[in-house]
Amino acid sequence: MVSIAAVISGLGASLPERVVSNEDLAASLDTSDAWIRSRTGIVRRRMVEPGTSTGDLAVAAGRAALSSAGSSADFVLLATTPDQPCPATAPQVAHRLGLEGVPVLDVSAVCSGFGYALALARALVASGACSRPLVIGAETYTSIVNQLDRDTAVIFGDGAGAVLLHEGDSTEPGAIHALDLGSDGAGSGLIEIAAGGSRCPRTGGALSCEQRYFRMRGREVYGQAVRRMATSVRTVLARAGWSNQSIRAFIGHQANQRILDAVSDRLGVETNYRFGNIAEVGNTAAASIPLAMADTTARRLVRPGARTILMAFGGGLTWGSVALSWPDALPVHLPPQHPPARQNIPAPPDGTVPGTRSTPL
Predict the structure, then answer these.
(1) Interval 247-259: pLDDT, tens
(2) pLDDT digit string (tens) for 59-71?
(3) Is pLDDT above 60 for 356?
(4) Residue 328's CB: how many other CB atoms inside 10 A?
(5) Is 361 a member of any domain?
(6) The Beta-ketoacyl-[acyl-carrier-protein] synthase III C-terminal domain covers which part of the protein (predicted)?
(7) pLDDT for 30
(8) 91, 199, 324, 346: most buried, per Cβ within 10 A?
(9) Hey, which bits of 241-326 come out as E strands?
(10) Does 19 fall in a domain?
(11) Does the residue 355 lie in any domain?
């Protein structure tokens, strides 16, 4: 039966030019190429240059997805760790893309963010709130990871990926067929940056590295990730009415190759239907799934319309999976795009800031 569906029609990607190999990290950390490969599956990752922000990557990936689809967007959802605590990053991204006046939203679900944003986009299309949502996953985790911490510095890289969707029907390649999302706040301490919010502001005293930087309790995260993602995939397969054996493309959030292998093995996914690029780009958090999709499409490894499962697990704790048919879109890759330099506004002689009140309300 044909029904209205949100359909992926454009794929975009953006990666920094700077490549950081395992050998590069071994020069400053107590580690080795062999140690990193055996525990993560990562060989190299991309890292932004100083002055390049998450928003710069998001703009490039978003513009690439729009170019891939040959269309514009009427809603922007940005899954990310934002450029700054306030305001959200999505309005600036939309402005720089020339999408003036469109509604926007930052989605904060860490590594599960892209799946959550896809779910929101699908609901927005179904409700009639929009017809061409742009979903971007963008991260610069190297800016929030302690580069002297071997447990996290070797894992993360920077990048952005994006998809443009349109209102279509369920028979089209790229149609989203089913979703499953979940969370468990009891595990919020397993993946976190402790400082920077209202519970632990960055002001008012010295902060330790553990408070200022991203930290993760790897062994516990591994167990949770494997169990939660395997359960979520079984649920979304049942909702789509698909069998494990019918899946022809299986892409997980590129967190750790051992996690990806463990979930795939539990579900009985054949090796030749497992796709990813963690070896080349590392863990790019919310950007990892669209980046892996763009890479897989560029290498022409999956036919349009093939039954596909996407899955992710991240801080919160959050997790989710998506059942869709592989899109019929050619990916476009663009380098990070920087905004025009801001002009400094001089303060008036009395020391107040222009546009603000010098006395309490």
Answers:
(1) 999 999 999 999 9
(2) 999 999 999 999 9
(3) no
(4) 15
(5) no
(6) 237-326
(7) 86
(8) 324
(9) 249-252, 307-314, 318-325
(10) yes
(11) no
For 199-208, which contacts have Cβ atoms below 8 Å and span 24 or more sequence positions?
none
**8 Å CB contact between 221 and 278:** no
What 8-state DSSP symbol labels residue 244? G
**Residues annotated catalytic, as ranges:** 111, 253, 283
Rounded CA gap, 152 and 172, in Å?
Answer: 40
| CA distance to 141, 157, 242, 356, per residue, from 144 (Å) | 5, 11, 39, 31
> CA-to-CA distance for 217 and 354, rounded, in angstroms?
45
E strands in 82-175: 104-107, 133-140, 158-169
Greatest mean pLDDT among 109-113, 165-169, 193-197: 165-169
* Segment holding 216, helix H or strand E: strand 215-216
CATH number at residue 159: 3.40.47.10
Q: Which helix (H) or strand (E) segment is 215 a member of? A: strand 215-216
Establish if 326 belongs to a structural domain. yes
- Which residue range is the domain that position 232 belongs to? 4-333
Task: For residue 321, give the nearest of 143, 114, 157, 34 by alpha carbon.
Answer: 114
133: β partners: 75
Which residue is associated with the tokens 């801080």? 315
Tokens 């395997």: give the residue: 230
Residue 102's identity, in one-letter code, is V
C-alpha 251/C-alpha 261 separation (Å) is: 11
What is the widest separation between alpha-carbon atoms in the chain?
72
Distance of CA 198 to the CA centre of its chain: 25
For the entire predicted model, the pTM comes to 0.90
Structure tokens at 313: 């697990």
CB 335 within 8 Å of CB 60: yes
> Is the backbone peptide bond immediately before 290 cis, with ω within 30 degrees of 0?
no
Give the mean model confidence (pLDDT) for residues 32-52: 95
Average pLDDT over residues 94-120: 95
Q: What is the percentage of the chain residues whose pLDDT exceeds 70?
A: 87
Q: Count of domains in the chain?
A: 1
Residue 260 CA to residue 263 CA, distance in Å, equals 5
